[in-house]
Amino acid sequence: MILSIESSCDDSAVAITEIATRRLVFHKKISQELEHSVYGGVVPELASRLHAEALPRILELCKPYFSELKAVAVTTTPGLAVTLIEGVTMAKAVSIALGIPIISVNHLKGHIYSLFIEKETELPLTVLLVSGGHTQVIEAKSFDDMKVVASTMDDSFGESFDKVAKMMDLGYPGGPEIENLAKGGDRKRYDFTIPLHQSPKIAFSYSGLKNAVRLAVLEGTKEDYKDIAASFEHIAVAHLTQKLKKYFKANPPKKFAIVGGASANMYLRGQIEKLIAPYGAALLLSELKYCSDNAAMIGRVAVEMYERGMFTLQNELKVSSRSEL
Ligand code: KG4
Ligand code: ZN
């Protein structure tokens, strides 16, 4: 079995995965959303301190499996350096105490492998990754051949929901709050411009839309919030589908997946389904509980790496915020 640790942002999570069967034997996550909610976003120092408390508490529950562990895996990139380091420190301690090797896992690859928890992989795939830190289109051909073909030039998709929610005092994370509020709103009332709609570039940008929404919030009253939320969500998603449509002209999808925390958004799922239907492409989604950050997805990547002998020495284990795959 492999023990995996995730602490790249505001979720402390540990999983245990059986190597031969890919079965998830144990998974526990302690989320810090409530603690950060009052600040309208993640406070890195607070997150780091909360990981230092939560991770050992979860590890304690894994003791019965210690004798079966063949490796310890940990997210090392990308993420907040001060929170990644908490997971890395615990991984090193487990490695020394049990005499097992360390596997250094890329968080973005983790989100892709959230599609395959307790399953065999189904690559190649075109993937839309939408999270709090990233908005990327990835051509995932095989485990070691993954290429980012489009990404955001400024804010990410999930981040724009967090920021709009903050403008309306809705708390953190903003994605689910905005999605809920938008359900009762008029998507067409505010005529926000679709970002980069005249640009031939296949890239994303959310800062202009965020600023347009800020003006609407300032000029409106609380009664307008649901229509602002609905119109914002509509344009934020239209931006994704418009750029994807452009990308599909030269690269028609065969199998398409949406991953990352914001892939839980039902309006986004519906619009992507409509977009890919004419290509006859299958849509793959993670289970809702594995869309947001978790350690099960890190364990699933770690199984692939274990089978390829991809271990990292203690003194070579480094954290970073780089977004390459
Ligand atoms: O993948 P994730 O848990 O953490 C990162 O790796 O960033 O994603 C969290 C992000 C947050 O920005 C959150 O607001 C967004 O995903 N999110 C959503 C929804 N649920 C979570 N965004 C839009 N609609 C949602 N339903
Ligand atoms: Zn994530």
Structural features, described:
- It is globular and about 60 Å long.
- The model has no long low-confidence stretch (mean pLDDT 97).
- Helix 5 packs across helix 6, helix 5 packs parallel to helix 7 and helix 7 (207-219) runs antiparallel to helix 8 (225-250).
- It is built from 10 helices and 10 strands.
- By secondary structure, the chain is an alpha/beta fold.
- The chain has 2 domains: 2-117 and 292-316, 2-Layer Sandwich (Nucleotidyltransferase, domain 5), CATH 3.30.420; 125-285, Nucleotidyltransferase, domain 5 (2-Layer Sandwich).
- The protein binds 5'-O-[(R)-(carboxyoxy)(hydroxy)phosphoryl]adenosine and zinc ion (ZN).
- Zinc ion is lined by residues 107, 111, 131, 260-261, 293.
Q: What would the keywords be for this entry?
A:
325 residues; alpha/beta; Nucleotidyltransferase, domain 5; 2 domains; five-stranded mixed β-sheet; 10 helices; 40% helix; globular; binds 5'-O-[(R)-(carboxyoxy)(hydroxy)phosphoryl]adenosine; binds zinc ion
Strand order of the largest sheet: 3-2-1-4-5
Distance between the termini: 25 Å
CATH architecture of the largest domain: 2-Layer Sandwich
Shape: globular
- Whole-number total of structural domains: 2
Q: How many alpha or pi helices?
A: 10
Q: Report the top-level CATH class of the largest domain.
A: Alpha Beta
Largest sheet: 5 strands, mixed
User: Structural class of the helix and strand makeup?
Assistant: alpha/beta
Give the DSSP E fraction (strand runs of 2 or more residues): 15-25%
List ligands, each type once: 5'-O-[(R)-(carboxyoxy)(hydroxy)phosphoryl]adenosine, zinc ion
- In the predicted model, the low-confidence regions spanning at least 5 consecutive residues are none
CATH topology of the largest domain: Nucleotidyltransferase, domain 5
The value of Rg in angstroms is 20 Å
CATH H level, superfamily name of the largest domain: ATPase, nucleotide binding domain
N to C succession of SSEs: EEEHHEHEHEEEHHHHEHEH
Return the average pLDDT rounded to an integer. Answer: 97
Number of beta-strand segments: 10
Helical proportion, percent range: 40-55%
